[in-house]
């Protein structure tokens, strides 16, 4: 009895699951367990209940009522999700969890200092694929950081995955149970992190690495018949991606979602107005479909420009003789490398610039512009204009297309 309680307390202190099954398997791996014979799971449960070492919990829905969603082979599907976590120093960071659906194997969870975004999500996927290979599909929610197809656009994460042969898919909006494996894994991870709350991002990453080692190699998983994710990963057949997915396939999916949304919004039976109880007319956020302007653009030495609403935006000389994937959404203009999926040029919308001569706009003079591999002259001029923007905060410049005030 004392040894069982001791194991339970240690598991709880370390942040791991500490139920009868977890205690049983922890004891079974201990060659020095008193008497050399570990009690059964049912016996451990009775012993803990007899000494009041059982946490009360609400009645749960019977497992037999669930229809499990699981792939039969490893690498058939990965699930990606992210959570915010507050460090001991008060900083809020983002933790990305990436699990193989069939084996529950953690293929690449990590933490980043910024809020949820496509660049960090792509970095998690890129390192996981480099270590394990590319899966056939990656399932996520409909966050724009992960998958923009349902919004009718194509983001950098989707382009990167397609280049590796992986199809990005997403669950139905408002149905988080589709990503249930990740949602459940969040609980296990947060409990472990809270047991010794990290003070810095570096400490958090060390803790996540320790979690991955224990979760994959030591912690038996009930959904895997008490095997560890590592054992399931090794035993299951692997069916990875085989060849890149044409960009046209993503464009077709995005177009299909756009058309479906347009059909829903043009439904003649839908009321054109929403009226509150007080009789106030409420704004209709779905009145207009949110479409994106997307295309492949070629930049040459003779014409180092891209076009936006009739304006000619100049680019640094390093962009000459290259082809980019252009995406214009409601709030951003993006140029993406079609091979690496890296966002190489971007600025927020509406476009605000200080150097606009007629229809010509110098890219370095756009507020909030981002450029990879800029030239030294471009960096120098951009710094000058960003300083001007900071000085004009009390008297902001006009948005292009509006008269100067």
From TrEMBL:
It holds the Pfam family rve_3. This is Transposase InsO and inactivated derivatives. Residues 384-394 have a biased composition (Polar residues). Gene3D superfamilies: Ribonuclease H-like superfamily/Ribonuclease H. PROSITE patterns: INTEGRASE. It comes from Cryobacterium levicorallinum. Residues 375-405 are annotated as: Disordered. Residues 64-237 form the Integrase catalytic domain.
């Amino acid at each position: 009895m004392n040894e069982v309680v001791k194991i339970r307390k240690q598991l709880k202190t370390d942040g791991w699951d500490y139920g009868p099954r977890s205690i049983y398997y922890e004891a079974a791996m201990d060659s020095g367990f008193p008497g050399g014979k570990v009690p059964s799971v049912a016996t451990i449960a009775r012993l803990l209940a007899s000494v009041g070492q059982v946490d009360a919990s609400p009645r749960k829905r019977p497992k037999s009522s669930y229809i499990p969603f699981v792939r039969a082979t490893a690498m058939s599907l990965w699930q990606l999700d992210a959570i915010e976590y507050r460090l001991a120093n008060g900083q809020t960071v983002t933790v990305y969890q990436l699990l193989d659906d069939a084996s529950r194997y953690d293929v690449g969870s990590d933490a980043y200092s910024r809020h949820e975004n496509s660049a960090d999500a792509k970095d998690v996927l890129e390192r996981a694929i480099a270590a394990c290979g590319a899966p056939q599909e990656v399932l996520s929610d409909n966050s724009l950081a992960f998958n923009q197809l349902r919004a009718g656009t194509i983001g950098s994460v989707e382009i990167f995955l397609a280049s590796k042969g992986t199809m990005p898919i997403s669950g139905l909006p408002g149905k988080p149970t589709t990503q249930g494996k990740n949602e459940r894994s969040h609980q296990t991870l947060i409990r472990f992190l809270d047991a010794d709350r990290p003070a810095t991002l570096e400490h958090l990453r060390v803790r996540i690495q320790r979690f991955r080692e224990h979760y994959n190699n030591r912690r038996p998983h009930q959904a895997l018949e008490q095997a560890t994710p590592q054992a399931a990963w090794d035993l299951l057949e692997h069916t990875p991606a085989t060849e890149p997915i044409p960009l046209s396939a993503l464009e077709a999916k995005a177009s299909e979602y756009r058309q479906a949304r347009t059909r829903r919004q043009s439904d003649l039976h839908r009321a054109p107005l929403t009226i509150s109880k007080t009789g106030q007319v409420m704004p209709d956020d779905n009145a207009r479909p949110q479409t994106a302007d997307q295309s492949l653009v070629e930049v040459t030495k003779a014409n180092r420009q891209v076009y936006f609403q009739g304006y000619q935006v100049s680019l640094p000389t390093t962009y000459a003789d290259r082809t980019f994937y252009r995406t214009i959404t409601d709030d951003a203009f993006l140029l993406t490398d079609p091979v690496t999926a890296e966002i190489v040029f971007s600025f927020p919308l509406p476009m605000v610039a200080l150097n606009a001569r007629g229809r010509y706009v110098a890219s370095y003079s756009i507020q909030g512009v981002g450029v990879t591999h800029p030239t030294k002259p471009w960096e120098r001029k951009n710094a000058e204009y960003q300083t001007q923007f900071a000085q004009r905060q009390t008297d902001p410049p006009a948005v292009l297309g509006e008269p100067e005030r």
